[in-house]
TrEMBL record:
Pfam families: SpoVR, SpoVR_C. PANTHER family: STAGE V SPORULATION PROTEIN R. Residues 16-442 form the SpoVR protein-like N-terminal domain. Residues 223-237 have a biased composition (Basic and acidic residues). Transmembrane segments: none annotated. The lineage of its organism: Bacteria, Pseudomonadati, Pseudomonadota, Alphaproteobacteria, Hyphomicrobiales. This is Spore cortex formation protein SpoVR/YcgB (Stage V sporulation).
C-alpha cells in the first residue's frame, strides 16, 4: 500500500489530463495487453472530440467520413435534444474497425476514464476486430476509410450533377433495404472469363458427341403446349440469375432495368456499408464482453503495480459497475439482457473454469476445465465464434444461476405462460439453446428472398417471405418497404408469405 501511494509510481494524479499523460498511459496499458495478455491489435490512433462531435458521430453511424443525408440530421437533433435535457448521457468513446484502429475519446472525460476507455476500445475492441473470423471474412479494416472518403465525394458529385432530391430518393429506398442488403454466407468465387469459355467449349463438344440425326425425324410439336416447358424455362431462368437471392440490394443493383450507372453505384455504397456493420450485429455480446474483460483485467493489473491511486481506482470500478449492471426483469430500467453484463460474466466464468473448476464444470466443459490457460482459451473463443455459437458452447450453469435465467413457453393460443425449463441438468441445456437462438441475427430478421423474375416477360419481381414461428410482417411497414423496392426495380413487385414448417401460403401481396 505504501508503495502504491508514492506519486513517482503513479501514471497520473487527479482528474485532469494532457496528451503527454495519455501517451504514458497508453504505453503502460500496451505493455500489459500485448506483453502479458498477448493481444494482437492494429496500430492505435486516439482522437479527442467534443460532446457535439460525439453526437454528430452518433447520427452518422459512428464513421469519421460519411456522406450527407437528411436522416443523419434528424437523428442528430433527436440525440442532441435528449442530451441537453439530461435524459440521456453520451458514450465515453466510439471505436472504428479500421487499420489503424481509431478511438474517439470525449474531452470531458477524466484521466481515469480516459485510461478505462483506452484499455476498453484501443485494446479490447481492437483485438476483437482484428482476430474474430467474421470481421476477417467480411471487412477490410485497411480499406474502409479510403472507401468512405470515395463514397462521400461520389455522392456529393451526384448531388451536384443530378440534384439533391434525386440522390436522396435513391438513398431513402436503399436505406430502407439495408437490413436485407447483406450476404449472410460466403458466395462462390466468380468464374474467370477463361473458365467460362472453357465450360462453353466442353458443353458444345458434349452436344456434338451425343447428337443423333434421328431427333430431326420426330414430328414437330407445339412446344408451347408442353406442360413441362414453363417449369423448365423457369428453372433455367433462376439458374442464370442465381436465384433464390437473399441480398435484395445486390440483386436490384445488378438486374434492375431502370437504374442508371450512378444509381447502381449508390446502391453498392449502401450495400457495402451494411455488410461492413453486419459482423457487429452478430457479435454484440462477445465484442463488448471481450472489451470489458480486457479493460477490467488491465486496470486491476495497473493498480496491483501501484500505477493507479486508490481514489482513481474507485472511480474506474464505479464506471465499470455501471457498465455491467443488469436490472431485474421487474425493474423499470429493464430493457433486456445487458450485452456488457452477459459477455463480461461469461468471460470471467471461462477464466474460473480454466483455473478453479468444480465437478459440474468438468462435466460440462471437459476440454477446458482446469487447463490453466484462461487467456489462450479466451483468445480462441474470441477468434472463432459469434454470439449464437459462443453462448451455445460456453454458457455455464453457474452463469445461468447468477442471472436467474429460466425458459418460458408462451404460445399465442394459450391463456397463460408456462415455465418450461428450470435449474436442472436438462433445463440448463434448454435455457442455453433458447438463449443462443435469440442471438441468431438470421432468426430475428425476416427471411425474404428473390425467388423469380422474368426479365424478358412481365419483369414482375417475386419475393418470398419464409414465416417462422407464425411471425408475420407488420402490414404498414411491409407495404412501405415494398414501395421502396418497386421504386428501385421499376416494375411490379409481389411478396408471398409461406409457412416455413408446412409450406402453406399465408398471404400474397403485390404493389399492383
Amino acid at each position: 500500500m505504501a508503495k502504491r501511494a508514492e506519486s513517482s509510481e503513479l501514471l497520473f494524479e487527479g482528474s485532469d489530463w494532457n496528451f503527454a499523460t495519455l501517451s504514458i498511459v497508453h504505453d503502460a496499458i500496451q505493455d500489459i495487453a500485448i506483453g502479458e495478455m498477448e493481444l494482437d491489435i492494429y496500430p492505435n490512433q486516439l482522437e479527442i472530440i467534443s460532446s457535439e462531435q460525439m453526437l454528430d458521430a452518433y447520427s452518422s453511424v459512428g464513421m469519421p467520413l460519411m456522406y450527407q443525408h437528411w436522416s443523419f440530421g434528424k437523428r442528430f437533433i433527436y440525440e442532441d435534444s435528449l442530451y441537453r435535457k439530461g435524459h440521456r448521457g453520451l458514450a465515453y468513446e466510439i471505436v472504428i474497425n479500421s487499420n489503424p484502429c481509431i478511438a474517439y475519446l470525449m474531452e470531458e472525460n477524466t484521466m481515469a476514464m480516459q485510461t478505462l476507455v483506452i484499455a476498453h476500445a484501443s485494446f479490447g475492441h481492437n483485438h476483437f476486430f482484428k482476430n474474430n473470423y467474421l470481421f476477417r471474412q467480411w471487412t477490410d479494416a485497411g480499406a474502409i476509410l479510403g472507401y468512405m472518403d470515395f463514397a462521400k465525394k461520389y455522392i456529393a458529385k451526384c448531388e451536384e450533377r443530378h440534384g439533391t432530391e434525386a440522390v436522396e430518393a435513391i438513398l431513402d429506398s436503399a436505406h430502407a433495404l439495408m437490413d436485407n442488403g447483406v450476404f449472410r454466407y460466403r458466395r462462390p468465387p466468380r468464374l474467370s472469363s477463361e473458365k467460362v469459355r472453357e465450360r462453353a467449349r466442353e458443353r458444345l463438344e458434349y452436344e456434338e458427341q451425343t447428337y443423333s440425326d434421328l431427333w430431326r425425324t420426330l414430328p414437330s410439336s407445339a412446344d408451347s403446349r408442353d406442360p413441362h416447358e414453363a417449369e423448365r424455362n423457369a428453372s433455367e431462368r433462376k439458374k442464370a440469375l442465381n436465384l433464390p437471392e437473399e441480398n435484395l440490394l445486390y440483386f436490384i443493383e445488378k438486374h434492375s432495368l431502370i437504374l442508371e450507372p450512378w444509381q447502381r453505384e449508390l446502391l453498392r455504397i449502401v450495400r457495402i456499408i451494411a455488410q461492413y456493420f453486419y459482423p457487429q450485429r452478430q457479435t454484440k455480446v462477445m465484442n463488448e464482453g471481450c472489451a470489458t474483460y480486457v479493460h477490467y483485467t488491465i486496470i486491476n493489473r495497473l493498480f496491483d503495480q501501484g500505477k493507479i491511486s486508490e481514489g482513481n481506482m474507485l472511480e474506474l470500478l464505479s464506471s465499470h459497475s455501471n457498465v455491467v449492471f443488469q436490472p431485474g426483469f421487474d425493474d423499470p430500467r429493464f430493457s433486456g439482457i445487458n450485452p456488457y453484463a452477459l459477455g463480461f460474466a461469461m468471460m470471467q466464468d471461462i477464466e474460473r473454469i480454466c483455473t478453479q473448476p468444480t465437478d459440474e464444470d468438468r462435466d460440462w466443459f471437459p476440454s477446458m476445465a482446469g487447463n490453466r490457460d484462461p487467456m489462450g482459451t479466451l483468445r480462441d473463443a474470441w477468434a472463432n465464434h459469434r454470439d449464437e455459437s459462443f453462448i451455445l458452447q460456453y454458457l455455464s450453469p453457474t452463469v445461468i444461476r447468477k442471472f436467474r435465467l429460466f425458459r418460458l413457453s408462451d404460445m399465442a393460443a394459450d391463456k397463460f405462460c408456462e415455465v418450461s425449463s428450470i435449474h436442472d441438468e436438462r433445463g440448463y441445456a434448454e435455457i442455453r439453446s433458447a438463449l443462443a437462438r435469440s442471438y441468431d441475427v438470421s432468426a430475428r430478421q425476416p427471411d425474404i428472398q428473390v425467388v423469380d423474375v422474368d426479365l424478358l416477360g412481365d419483369r414482375r419481381l417475386r419475393l418470398k417471405h419464409t414465416v417462422n414461428d407464425g411471425l408475420l410482417l407488420e402490414e404498414t411497414s411491409r407495404n412501405e418497404t415494398l414501395t421502396h423496392i418497386r421504386h428501385l426495380w421499376g416494375y411490379e413487385v409481389g411478396l408471398s408469405g409461406v409457412d416455413g414448417a408446412t409450406g402453406n401460403v399465408l398471404y400474397d401481396h403485390s404493389t399492383g
